[in-house]
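Supplementary Note 3. Input sequence used for the single-chain structure prediction.
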Amino acid sequence: MNEHDRTRNHLLAELPSEVFARLEPFLDSLSMAAGDIVATPGLTIDHAYFPLSGMVSMVALFAGGLGVEVATIGNEGMIGLPIFLGADSSPFHLMWQLPGEALRIRADDLLPAVGTGTRLEKVLTTYSQAYFVHTAQNAACNGLHGVSQRAARWLLSTQDRAESDQFFLTHEFLAFMLGVTRQTVSIAVGELQDAGLINYRRGHMRILDRDGLLSASCECYAIVRREFERLLGIGRA
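The predicted structure, written as C-alpha cells, is reproduced below.
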C-alpha cells in the first residue's frame, strides 16, 4: 500500500507514519460495489472499513419495509464506529451506495491497535463527536424541513462523496433514503430541475448549479460541514 492510498481516507491521513505502519499489516484493500451490505441490524460487526472513495448509507428500517437514511459515510470517516465505542452490533442497515474502494480491518485487530491514549484513539474519538452531530442534525432535518430542501442537502452530500457532478440515482432510491413516496420525490426533483439546478434523466443525475443547490438546501448541510471542518479539518460531510 502506498502513501497516497491511505491519505485518501481523512482519518488515516491524520495518523503519523509510524502509527499507521503498525496498523497497515491488518488492512485489506477492497473494491466495493453499489448495493454491497456492510452491516445488518442484530448481526455482529466483524470488520471496520475506512472508505477511500464512494459512499455508504446508514438506514433505519421499520416494519413493512419502510426506511429512512440517518447518515452517510465517505472518505471522511470510518464504517464500524460501534466497534470503537464498545458495541458489537448496530440497529442500522449499512449499504454501499456509491461504488468505491476501502481498507478493511477485523474488529479483533482494530481494538488492540486503538489502545489507550494513542493518536488513533484521539482521531476516532473526535470523529465520533462529528458523526454524532451529523446523525442528530439529519434527524432534526427529517422532522422539520421540506422534501425539496432535504433532497438538495442529500444531493450536495452525495456530490461531495462522488467527487463528480454526475452520479447514478433512481427516484425509488432517493425516496427510500428520504423516507417519502416516489411521487413526492419526483415533485421535489422536478422543482430542482425546473430551477436549473440539476439535470435528471433515466437514473443519471447531474449537478448543474452547486451554488444554487446550496441556496435551495436547508441550513443542515452547512451546519454539518462546519462541524467536520472545526473538529477534523475536513471540508465535506
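The chain has two domains: 3-115, 146-217. The beta strands are 28-32, 37-39, 47-51, 55-61, 67-73, 93-98, 100-106, 166-168, 198-201, 204-207.
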